Amino acid sequence: MSAFTQAIPRWSQGTVMVFRRDFLAWVKYYKSSVILNFGEPLTNLLALGFGLGTYVATMAGVPFIDFIGPGLLAVTAMNAVTFDMAFEGYDRLNENGIYQSMITAPLTVGQIVAGEYIWEGLRSLLYGVVFVVVLAALGLVKSWWALLLPLPLVVTGVLFAAPALWVACRAKNHEQLFYYFTLVITPMYLFSGVFFPITHLPPLVRDAIAITPLFHAVNIMRAMVLGHFYRGLWWDALWMLGYVAILGFLPVRSLARRLAD
User: Could you report the per-residue pLDDT of 73-118, keeping only the tens digit for each?
Assistant: First the structure.
């Protein structure tokens, strides 16, 4: 056991070991991971912001590229953890037996899940901060409140890691993971206020969108990047924290059942 591990309280050592394992594994393929998770939002920002933005001058009273930039920041945080946790979680459980090995270490299921959440929160932060730097370089960061973006980025990472791990525990094969991306992630990406306000959509559609986690993440990050705050922003924060509190426990029982099989 390393001196670093010995300095950590005993009850949390297992969680830190899981986090450390994920980080060291990521270091081996970080270049391809960056391209996959960062390239698409950046491409959308440049293509839509400087392409479609020449035809759509403003959106919700701000330049179009200013509007979509913070939305794509939230998408970056969502995608960075969703694809990783779903596919890597499935492989660790079904292909290479990493979770089974962790249980015999011995670690508890709670420590495994907590370690995954910490890593995915950091992963969301890493990709998000890089995207914020790009936004700043393009002159799209309008407020010093952007310095607080690490907080919603980490929360977003944990928020989307939880259902992705649950899906990984429930999926019988890789193909079933794509149901989650197609039926849940893609609709949120398109309709959660990333590219246009939801105010002119039918009331029933607006109500459905307003309970999606990405919608609230987009609102918070847009407010911090642009400096446009409003009273309802506290509700967005409470929604996100509530999702973390509820969804955070979702994969624990499913993973425990799978490991007990």
Answer: 999 999 989 999 999 999 999 988 899 999 987 889 999 999 999 9
Coil, strand or helix: which one is 119?
A: helix
What are the structure tokens assigned to 29, written together? 């393929």
**Reported pTM:** 0.90
Q: Where are the domains of the chain?
A: 10-260
Each residue's pLDDT tens digit, 152-164: 999 999 999 999 9
User: Which residue has 């890089």 as its token pair?
Assistant: 130
How many Å apart are CA 23 and CA 128, to the nearest integer? 17
Q: Dig out the tokens for 65 from the structure.
A: 């590229």
Backbone angles phi, psi at 59, to 5 degrees: -145, 120
The single-letter code of the amino acid at 132 is: V
Q: List C-alpha distances in Å: 118 to 121, 161, 162, 245.
A: 5, 10, 11, 14
Residue 58 β-bridge partners: 63
Phi, psi of 215 (to 5 degrees): -55, -45
Return the closest-CA partner of residue 156 out of 213, 230, 231, 85: 213
